[in-house]
Amino acid sequence: MPHPNSTAAGSNERVDGFATRAIHFGYDPTLYGGAVAPPVFFTSTYGFESMGEMDAAASLGGKLYAREHNPTTEILEARLANLEGAEAALTVATGMAAAGTLMLGLLSQGDEIIVHQTLYSNTVALTRDGIPRFGIKVIPVDLSDPANLDAALTPKTKLVYFETPVNPTSEILDIAAISARAAKVGAKVVVDSTFASPALQRPLEHGAHIVLHSLTKYINGHGDVLGGVLLGDRGTIAHLHSHGLRYLTGATLSPMTAGLIMRGLKTLPLRMERHSRSALTIAEKLADHRAVAWVRYPYLEGSPGYEIARKQMSGGSGMLSFGLKNGFDGARRVLDRLELASRGVSLGDVETLVMHPASILRARQTVRPEAKPVEGVGDDLIRFSVGLEDEADIWDDLAQALEGA
User: Fold this and answer.
1) Is the pTM of this model over 0.85?
2) Given this structure, which CATH class describes domain 37-265?
3) Out of 120, 161, 218, 299, which one is annotated catalytic?
4) Which positions does the record annotate as the modified residue N6-(pyridoxal phosphate)lysine (predicted)?
């Protein structure tokens, strides 16, 4: 049984807080020789003492092989589901494996999916070039105004998919308003909440049906593993497990990776508090800098979506975007001058990371001329993932770099 546990209102048992559950939920050390940290189970298959035992395991959902069943991974899934407020979770090998498992597992030929016009670039590739090959219609919509959803919804709409905050713009979308409109046709709402993590935002509380995270980012937080997770009701997650993971993608999470993610998860609320505090300070200073044309950060007063962010997030997270008055060339000069921050395409690490999407696109176009810019991502946009270094050091590095803008 989980130790400690969180119980329903009205129970005589205590309800533990988020930080306590992030450390303990779903694991009882007394079942594993008193080991404080959950053991990592390295096995590809499971043996049985009799055919009867094997039949029983198979009847319970195929707990025969490690692609579908691993004790370490299941502890992580139970803990993540609890923190997100979901009935169940399914962990997979990467964030893109989560997106692929979701869409291939729930959509069929003739179905429709509505997506926000701005998404993570590889999710754009999946929805623009990938799933349409299977007869699935993808409809991009500007969901910054939820009313735009009404004209796109049809009886064939199965999923409405978006990120909030949006990668890489840090745009905020109204989960409750979008969910209320999607309910008119019974479409499931899927929110990629990677930029926030469950420490700051829990979309299911605002009407969403499924939550996706790249575990590579804040939930692990240390830039040393890849992983993804889908969270939602028990029936949907069971279907994605038995179909999406079992034979559509086979994208199993390594048990070692699961153990490392649980280690990172234990400090998630502390890290998100620090990321959020430092990022707000950096955003405020950027907004006052003479070289900066605009700044977008969820908790920056006056930033688009500020009021919605305050309603559905308990902190602004560590992600912000900004543009320079000198545009593309200025952005490249700034990135070249940075000394503490690392130029890198990931985010959510303890290290500060920065990227210029337009430069990545132009580099890719030299070998893939068909590569297209993501909607809403201009030549000037810089994505800045504020790490856990001293706040003053992060700003000093950025300020000296901006002198070359």
Assistant:
1) yes
2) alpha beta
3) 120
4) 217
